[in-house]
TrEMBL record:
Highest taxon, organism lineage: Bacteria
Protein name: tRNA-specific 2-thiouridylase MnmA
Name of the gene this protein is made from: mnmA
Entries under HAMAP family matching the protein: tRNA_thiouridyl_MnmA
Keyword hit for ATP-binding: yes
Limits of the tRNA-specific 2-thiouridylase MnmA-like central domain: 202-268
Species: Gordonia alkanivorans CGMCC 6845
Length: 372
């Protein structure tokens, strides 16, 4: 096959490209320029897409003996990922930009261009597995990225390769060193790639501006503090609330509700955060076929953690495919805008992704199915 290898400049994508070469594919490496003004250097493990990263990717391609190109996707990335990220926070939601990037950039814009140029598949350094066309968790659960890939359609998965999903991260680094790849010890990037400072609130404040509102107590309605915009908060947040005095009972306060229309941020107890039901819209079914009846699964509601057994029911909301999710035990910190990803446990091959949707609303009331 002709394979386009997306090379970020990190160790994972370099080894993924190397394994594609080993598999006998005709491989071409490509680095995506996602910033209109990339920095010369990364700041430790913060950020990505710097000129340093592009150079690291090029050196890895040279070691592997494959052609290498840099493609400019900065405008598309701004429109589809950064702008959507800002708009979501302004609306009181908590988006996952990695998921959006996979959905709209890597496996849509990039993959479409690759297919148009005659490539058969796109290889990336994501930690996930494809088994008989089914998306499953990576062997290394600590590095698993199936959550941010669950939005991919059956067609997109059919032209994807995840060559490193069957190997723990430590072994990937060791393999990179054996291959003579200089990125073997390069730190993993973390946080949000287009906010290298790590200060999301400051980034959003510069984009959105000041939109003052109140922080109020969930039980009494008392105004506890003022704030400069709902974009500085997310459901389940405990720190940075701007409240001078502790709660009367001495227990921590958490953000339990965000109303962007009034600018009101409500805080309450950990018990106030409990969610028993989720409605997820923009549903994607990994098999390409919508289940015709409710089924048992495990839901994950954020990139790291937030797992619970559920009964999932396909439905329609405002004419679009959606999922009603009844939890068998409550979860906390469930934020609108995040993905609700459904898995079927499989001890042999790793948990299988069956579908996902974006969290549109939640319920604090147990249903009959949730408490059985």
């Amino acid at each position: 096959m002709r394979v386009l290898a997306a090379m970020s400049g990190g160790v994972d994508s370099a080894v993924a490209a190397a394994r594609a070469v080993d598999a006998g594919h005709e491989v071409v490496g490509v680095h995506l320029a996602l910033s209109t003004a990339p920095g010369a250097l990364r700041t430790g493990s913060r950020g990505c897409c710097s000129r340093e990263d592009a150079s690291d990717a090029r050196r890895a391609a040279d070691v592997l003996g494959i052609p290498f190109y840099v493609w400019d996707f900065a405008d598309r990335f701004k429109d589809d990922v950064i702008d959507e990220f800002v708009e979501a926070y302004a609306a009181g939601r908590t988006p996952n930009p990695c998921l959006t990037c996979n959905e709209k950039i890597k496996f849509a814009a990039l993959a479409d261009k690759a297919i148009a140029l005659g490539f058969d598949a796109l290889a990336t350094g994501h930690y996930a597995q494809l088994v008989d066309g089914e998306l499953r968790r990576a062997v290394d659960h600590d590095k698993d990225q199936s959550y941010v890939l669950a939005v991919l359609t059956r067609e997109q998965l059919s032209r994807a390769l995840f060559p490193i999903g069957d190997t723990p991260k430590a072994e990937i680094r060791a393999e990179a060193a054996r291959r003579g790849l200089a990125v073997a010890d390069k730190p993993d990037s973390h946080d949000i790639c287009f906010i290298p400072s790590g200060d999301t609130r400051a980034f959003l404040g510069a984009k959105i501006g000041i939109r003052p509102g109140a922080v109020v107590d969930a039980s009494s309605g008392e105004r506890l503090a003022d704030h400069e915009g709902v974009h500085g908060f997310t459901i389940g947040q405990r720190k940075g609330l701007g409240i001078d005095a502790p709660a009367a009972d001495g227990k921590p306060r958490y953000v339990t509700e965000i109303d962007p229309a009034s600018g009101t941020v409500t805080v309450g107890t950990a018990e106030d955060l409990q969610v028993w039901g989720i409605t997820a819209t923009r549903a994607v079914w990994t098999s390409g076929i919508t289940p015709d009846e409710p089924f048992e699964a495990v839901v994950q509601v954020r990139a790291h953690g937030g797992l619970a057994p559920v009964t999932a029911t396909p439905t329609i909301v405002a004419g679009e495919p959606a999922i009603d999710i009844a939890l068998h035990e409550p979860l906390t910190g469930v934020a609108r805008g995040q993905a609700a990803v459904l898995y079927l446990p499989d001890a042999e091959h790793g948990d299988q992704v069956v579908g996902c949707g974006r969290i549109a609303s939640t319920s604090s009331q147990p249903t009959a199915v949730a408490t059985r």
